[in-house]
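Let us work through a complete example step by step.
Step 1: write down the sequence.
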Amino acid sequence: MLVLKQVILVPCPHASGKEAAVVRSYPEVDDCQEPEHLSSLLLTGRPAFPGRFASRGVVLFLGGDQLTAILLGKRLGYPTLLYAEADVLWPQFSN
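Step 2: predict the structure and record it as tokens.
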């Protein structure tokens, strides 16, 4: 069974700029899209890296802008799981 492990990093004002390098250092990760390519992905649905997204997947939100995670899940057709310390702002749009 082919399992593609792709990570999409989203913009964050608290980012160090080293997140993509850290993600790519994990052997379990096949592809990583950097934050500057997010708007293009949301508009076109095509990743910045060569290839495609898996037909099945999940958007796992661990911090930042919840709306971005919801829009990404809708664009890719993936369920969205939101983790938040306080309130989930749009629970009707997450799983």
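Step 3: interpret the result. The mean pLDDT is 81.
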